[in-house]
């Protein structure tokens, strides 16, 4: 969370930084700022708000070395004082920081500084300044040994030098138009250059107009190899209103790409334990939901399977099985809890697999066994197409392990169409204070995902529950201000599910049914048909559109849900 971007060179640094920060905004958009040299002194411009607000304040800035930041608050509220960059006591050093310095309170207590903010980052820049070493890079390396936690940083000195470094949070370096850039995300570099250097944990870089030098944690110069940047999707011309909208409408493309790739290349490169006894999924948020769906697919081919929330798993007491495969699902490949869980499994010697949508991400590096998903770059905080890619890739993987035909998958993709969520039903849903999503089996998982999407971007009070559980407590919430959205695509429990809906009706709750069967007596959104196991792919898309339409009707921006950011790189 938080995005940093720094650049130095005789090119349009300010324009590059503003454009870069705009691309990084999905990592946090509470506040933003830049620092540059003006009349031989460091100047800082920062504001609460987004990059457009910053851009206006920065009009007319001309500088050939700038560091910039877009923030998702961790330590300290959303205020101008807490926005980055932060200056050191002397004012000769400015820092932008992504991460959390866990021992900042102890460090702070040892310093005599008039603090301007409540951030851990201001402590870090002062710690760096206090180091006795004779040059900035050595001071940074020395200070990095004293901090606990995670960081990706860029520092600008009043002498015009930029030093960057990282631990646990990503940082990439590249040459652009004869200048040099450090940034949290390769997306910033797309269309600007084809090559980049990835800093590893506790590696540092000095960026000068004349070139870039890399250092290890002992301060030794190191040589690094350039890597190639993959192409990023552009927003399709047809749906360019918001990232979320454009990404939902890429669904068919994503399914086709996934099918094409896995039909062509199969899963033979994936390392699986010889005596595979069980398969377990570990993830957060939407990726956790795709793990829940996947577990059902693997159970159907006879493999015991469990899905864990990463933030619970890492502190839990799970008994590990050396003959199990531990699968970490993450769109970004950067999620702190998922990474921490993967590190735990690595230590145990169990086999692991990363299911990620991001080239060369941390999770891939840890697992060294990767099942890529083909959603293309996902920018919107609310994950939509990545969920489809995860569910569908894992369905194909289960078919492969279970020796099953993929004909149903090919049919589902060829018949796939985006089912719009009608405006009339959106209008109807707007009158309710609470929305409860219900389903059974795979439909319950879709309910969880639909509810997450709705609350995430429209802030409507919503929960999801397995419909059989309603009368064990949640039914008490149902009144005439409650809309219950029932998802019905699984035939085994159809009658039981309809009985559960009747129980809701009897308590004054209103019902909206999303189903591939026509049921009399309900407001119904009808879905097309495909193999039952793949119905989660068909049913989730109109529910994503439902969340999007509710969000827009309520006047919110779906790409910037409050309090959230795309990559959750802190615990
Ligand atoms: O990058 P990841 O897939 O690891 O992210 C996990 C969750 O943070 C993410 O899915 C989150 O729940 C989405 N914002 C939901 O739309």
Question: Key features?
Answer:
single chain; 571 residues; alpha/beta; Glutamine Phosphoribosylpyrophosphate, subunit 1, domain 1; Rossmann fold; 3 domains; 17 helices
Structure explained in plain terms:
- With 571 residues, this protein is of the alpha/beta class.
- The chain has three domains: 3-228, Glutamine Phosphoribosylpyrophosphate, subunit 1, domain 1, CATH 3.60.20; 236-416, Rossmann fold; 418-558, Rossmann fold (3-Layer(aba) Sandwich).
- The strands form four sheets. It has an eight-stranded antiparallel beta sheet with strand order 3-2-4-1-10-9-11-15, covered by helices on one side.
- Helix 8 (285-300) runs parallel beside helix 12 (385-401).
- It is globular, with a radius of gyration of 25 Å.
- It starts with a strand and ends in an 18-residue tail after the last helix.
- The relative contact order is 0.09.
- The model has no long low-confidence stretch (mean pLDDT 94).
- 5-amino-5-deoxy-1-O-phosphono-D-mannitol binds at residues 284-287, 330-332, 335, 338, 381-383, 452, 456, 567-568.
- 5-amino-5-deoxy-1-O-phosphono-D-mannitol (M6R) binds at residues 284-287, 330-332, 335, 338, 381-383, 452, 456, 567-568.
């Amino acid at each position: 969370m938080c995005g940093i971007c720094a650049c130095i060179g005789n090119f349009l640094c300010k324009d590059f930084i503003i454009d870069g920060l705009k691309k990084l905004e999905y990592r946090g958009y509470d506040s933003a700022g830049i620092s540059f040299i003006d009349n031989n002194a460091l100047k800082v411009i920062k504001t609460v708000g987004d990059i457009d607000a910053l851009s206006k304040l920065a009009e007319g800035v001309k500088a050939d070395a700038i560091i910039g930041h877009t923030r998702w608050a961790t330590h300290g509220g959303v205020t101008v004082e807490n926005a980055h960059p932060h200056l050191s006591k002397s004012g000769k050093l400015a820092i932008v920081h992504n991460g959390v310095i866990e021992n900042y309170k102890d460090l702070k207590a040892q310093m005599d500084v008039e603090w301007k903010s409540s951030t851990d980052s201001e402590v870090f820049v002062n710690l760096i300044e206090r180091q006795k070493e004779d040059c900035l890079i050595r001071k940074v390396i020395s200070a990095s040994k004293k901090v606990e936690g995670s960081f990706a940083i860029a520092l600008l000195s009043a002498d015009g030098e930029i030093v960057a470094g990282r631990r646990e949070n990503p940082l990439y370096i590249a040459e652009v138009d004869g200048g040099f850039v450090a940034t949290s995300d390769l997306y910033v570099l797309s269309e600007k250059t084809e090559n980049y250097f990835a800093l590893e944990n506790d590696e540092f870089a000095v960026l000068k107009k004349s070139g870039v030098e890399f250092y290890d944690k002992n301060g030794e110069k190191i040589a690094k190899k350039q890597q190639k940047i993959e192409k990023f999707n552009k927003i399709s011309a047809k749906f360019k209103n918001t990232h979320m909208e454009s990404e939902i409408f890429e669904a068919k493309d994503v399914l086709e790409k996934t099918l094409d790739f896995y039909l062509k290349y199969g899963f033979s490169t994936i390392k699986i334990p010889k005596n595979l006894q069980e398969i377990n999924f570990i993830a957060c948020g939407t990726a956790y939901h795709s793990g829940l769906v996947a577990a059902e697919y693997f159970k159907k081919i006879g493999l015991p399977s469990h899905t864990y929330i990463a933030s619970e798993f890492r502190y839990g007491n799970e008994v590990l099985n050396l003959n199990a495969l531990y699968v970490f699902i993450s769109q970004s490949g950067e999620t702190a809890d998922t990474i921490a869980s993967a590190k735990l499994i690595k230590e145990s010697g169990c086999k692991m697999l990363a299911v990620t949508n991001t080239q060369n991400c941390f999770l891939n590096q840890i697992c060294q066994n990767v099942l890529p998903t083909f959603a293309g770059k996902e920018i919107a905080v609310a994950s939509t197409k990545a969920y489809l890619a995860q569910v569908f890739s894992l369905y194909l993987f289960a078919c492969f392990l279970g020796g099953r035909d993929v004909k149903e998958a090919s049919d589902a993709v060829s018949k796939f169409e985006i089912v719009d969520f009608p405006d009339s039903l959106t209008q109807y849903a707007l009158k309710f204070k609470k929305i409860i999503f219900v389903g059974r089996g795979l439909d319950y998982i879709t309910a969880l995902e639909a509810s997450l999407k709705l609350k995430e971007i429209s802030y409507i009070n919503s929960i999801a529950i397995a419909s059989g559980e309603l009368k064990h407590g949640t039914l008490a919430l149902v009144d005439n201000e409650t809309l219950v959205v029932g998802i019905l695509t699984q035939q085994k429990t159809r009658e039981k599910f309809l009985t559960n809906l009747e129980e809701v009706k009897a308590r004054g709750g209103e019902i909206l049914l999303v189903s591939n069967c026509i049921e009399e007596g309900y407001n119904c959104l009808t879905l097309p048909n495909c193999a039952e196991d793949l119905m989660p792919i068909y049913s989730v898309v109109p529910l994503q559109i439902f969340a999007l339409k509710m969000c827009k009707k309520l006047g919110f921006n779906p790409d910037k849900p409050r309090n959230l950011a795309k990559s959750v790189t802190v615990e």
